[in-house]
Amino acid sequence: MWERARRIADEGGARLLSDLAALVRPQAEEPSRAPTELDQLTTREREIAQLVAEGLSNQAIATKLYLSRRTVETHLSAIYRKTSVSSRSALAGLMTRAALDRSI
C-alpha cells in the first residue's frame, strides 16, 4: 500500500507528500524465528553454555569467568533444567544447532 500511495503522489506531482512518505516508510518486517530453549537462558547461562560447547571443563570455565566451580555447576544445573538436556554433549549439540540456525 505504501508503494502505491507514493507512486500516486509522485505521478500527481505532490513532491512534498512524496518526500514525507519516504520519511515515514514502514520498515520491512524481519521473519520472526521460533523461540528456542536457549531463549530462556540468562546472559551468564548462555556464556557458560557456549564455553561448555567449546569443550571447557567446569574448572576451566570457573577460572575464565572468575567464578567458583560450584557456581558454574549451579548455572549448569539451571541450564540443563531450562533446556531439557541431561549432559554436556547434548548441551554442546544444542548450542551448535542454534549457531547453525542463526548463520542461515
Short description:
This protein is an all-alpha fold.
Folded structure, characterized:
- This protein is mainly α and 104 residues long.
- 66% of the residues lie in helices and 0% in strands.
- It contains 6 helices and no strands.
- Helix 1 runs antiparallel to helix 2, helix 3 crosses helix 5 and helix 3 crosses helix 6.
- The radius of gyration is 24 Å and the shape is rod-shaped.
- The model has no long low-confidence stretch (mean pLDDT 84).
SSE layout and pairings?
Layout: H1 2-11, H2 15-23, H3 43-53, H4 58-65, H5 69-83, H6 88-103
Helix pairs in contact: 1-2, 3-5, 3-6, 4-5
Unreliable stretches covering 5 or more consecutive residues: none
Kindly state the mean pLDDT as a whole number? 84
Please tally the helical runs, counting DSSP H or I stretches of 4 or more residues.
6
Helicity, as a percent range:
55-70%
Q: How does the overall form come out from the CA principal axes?
A: rod-shaped
Count of extended strands: 0
What tags apply to this protein structure?
single chain; rod-shaped; 104 residues; 6 helices
